[in-house]
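Quick one: structure for this chain?
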Amino acid sequence: MTALLLMYLCVDASHTDCQVIPVQRWIKPDAYEQCIATVPQLTAALTAKNRKLHYFICEVQGRHEQGPAQLAAPRFSNQ
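Got it. Here's what it folds into:
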């Protein structure tokens, strides 16, 4: 299993107009568990103001989805 830790950088607290940045990837049977164990530490390290604008998501990646080359550059989400 592959799990990606994604960081969302948003313009405002409504979580619109966010930039998505892949932060880390695990490729192991317990990849998702490792990813979600990392999120609380990263969130706690943010200032209160930044917690409203930035957040972390763990996403499981299927075998046939994007490879490392496609994940190297930040992805943008226009909402």
